[in-house]
From TrEMBL:
The chain crosses the membrane at residues 9-30. Pfam families: YbbR. InterPro entries: c-di-AMP_regulator (IPR053154), YbbR (IPR012505). Keywords: Membrane, Transmembrane, Transmembrane helix. This is YbbR-like protein. Gene3D superfamilies: 2.170.120.30, YbbR-like domain (2.170.120.40).
Amino acid sequence: MKEKIFNNFSLKILSVLCAIVLWAVIVNIYDPTTSVTISNVNVELINAQSLTDKDYTYEVVDGSKISVYLSGPKSVITDIKSSDIVATADLSKISAFADYVDIDVKVVKDGKEVTGIEVTPRTTAVKLDIENRLTKEYTIETDTEGMPADGYVLTSVSVTPTTVKVTGPSSIVENIDKVKAVCDISGAYSNVNSTAKLTAYAADGSQINEEVFSFSKSDVDYTALISAHKIVNVRCAGTTGTVKDGYMIMGIELSTDKAELIGDVNTLNNISEIVIPESAINVDNIDSSRNYTVWLSDYISQDLKVKSENKLNIKVKVADLNSREFSFDTSKITFNNIKTGYHVTIDDDSVMSIVISGEGSVLDSISGDNIKGTTNLTALSAGRHTVFVNFTVPDGCKVVGEYKIQVLIEADKLQETTSAASN
């Protein structure tokens, strides 16, 4: 038996080697080894709760998509698609002092892992940016988009809920200055009930990308109250009572002669003015000018509301019978203590009325030429200011009441040019 085995042994070895070579040749001809690189393979992060449970948040810096090198029999390799490649990164394996985790890659077809091939990721690890996770509550502010229909105005906007929690990386959440709900009221002529998307803003007004954090509620319900509106005149019908003997009413001044009303459209169509009745202004036995305060809402229908200033100030100017009203040209006012390099202009009418009391003969001799007006501008900077005017009148007379004008203080052109050149 032994002799048969070793008989022509070298020839037998040669035959085996030839068979192996022949098999390899046949395999390479009919199913050769080949390789391919597949790109844009998504890497799935698993066990993310191992970070989030510890109040960490993360962002993938690099490695979310990778290329994978495959090598093996052509019959197997050519049948593999990118969807067959399973790439995972196990976040539970990340170390305490690292910011990356290894990528594991395999090929799975029909639920089974394909073996006998080489699978190598070109990128071997996912790089992460890991931060402490922060949750912070913000009051929801409202803003509007669009305009109501003609003849209608927005009276108020409310949202439900009024607060929202924001969760994300501490560096992002701390940078949020406000959270807003933008409510659309375009073309509205009645109340609007809808939903609005929440948006976070930094202190400089820039919008913060919401992909890096999460709202506890991304949308809120809002109610926008829309009302018809109209601007009407305001007037005083007069006064009741009689001023003290020897005195007379020189005039009535209102703090405003217009008011904006909102409410029922039919009621608004039937009103053109608000009239303050005589009974509201009692001047009985007064001997000097007096201020009265009334509320416009007291003199309109309950179906309406005053959207503009509701309080109306009424000044009744009273002077003794030996008083007269004179016209004074405001261009003759002398401005004292103007800052060097500045000039003054008057915003009010060019003529103002002043009341002067005194002996009849003296009053008869007064003209605009012997009335002097001055005002003090000490410590006033550039801009608009309301200042008192002090009048000087002939002996034996006095000015009744106080008088103010609005002035505009501006830098001279030369000074502006010099300042710009120096900058």
